[in-house]
TrEMBL record:
WD repeats lie at residues 61-102. This is CDC20/Fizzy WD40 domain-containing protein. The lineage of its organism: Eukaryota, Metazoa, Chordata, Craniata, Vertebrata. GO terms for cellular component: anaphase-promoting complex. Residues 7-197 form the CDC20/Fizzy WD40 domain. Keywords: Repeat, WD repeat. It comes from Bambusicola thoracicus (Chinese bamboo-partridge).
Amino acid sequence: MFVLYWQLWDIERKRRLRSMFGHLSVVGALSWNHYILSSGSRLGSIHHHDVRVAQHHIGTLCQNKQSICSLKWSLTNQLLASGSSDGTLNIWHSDPGVNVKSQPLKTIPHSSAVKAMNWCPWQSNVLATGGGMKDGILRVWDINHEKLLQSAATNSQICSLLWLPKTSELMTGQGLPANQMKIWQYPALINSSELYGKYFSSLF
C-alpha cells in the first residue's frame, strides 16, 4: 500500500509551501472553501484539509467505491457537489469535520460519469453538470428541488464547465471526437458558437 500526496504552492514566489498526505489512490479532484481544501480520490473518498495547521486532515466523506471525477464548493460555501464515475451526483453539507458515516443531503443519478460541474455565479441554487463519454449531456439543475431545468446533447464527453456571467452563457470543454469548446446560451442551452483547433481534450 502506498500513500499519495499533493502540494500547496505560492505561485507568486514560485515556491512550495507544504506537501499533504492522506489518500491511498490517485487524487483526481480538488476544490477550495476558504482555508479548507477538499480532495477526491479514485477510491471514492473525499477528504477535507485545513491548510493552516499541521494535522490538516479534519474530515472524510465516502461517496462510494467509484472514482471521484469532480468536486465543487458552492459560491456561498454552504454546499459541496461531488461527481463520480458511476454517474452519481451528491450534494453534501458544508461541515468539514465530518466522518465516513455522513450521508449526502441529496443524490441525483446520471447515466454516465459526472466529469465536470460548476455552480451558477448569479443563482446559488443552480448547478451545471457535464456527462462523460457514454453520455455527453450538459444538464442544469435546481439543487433545492432536485429538478432538471434544462439539458442539451453535446455529442462528446464534457471535460470542463465554465459560467460566463457577463453574457449569461455556459462554456463546455469537450473531449473526443472533436476536442473543441462550445458556448451555450442560458437558460435555453442553445449552442451559439464553437471553437476548434485543439488536439487534445479541452480542460481549459
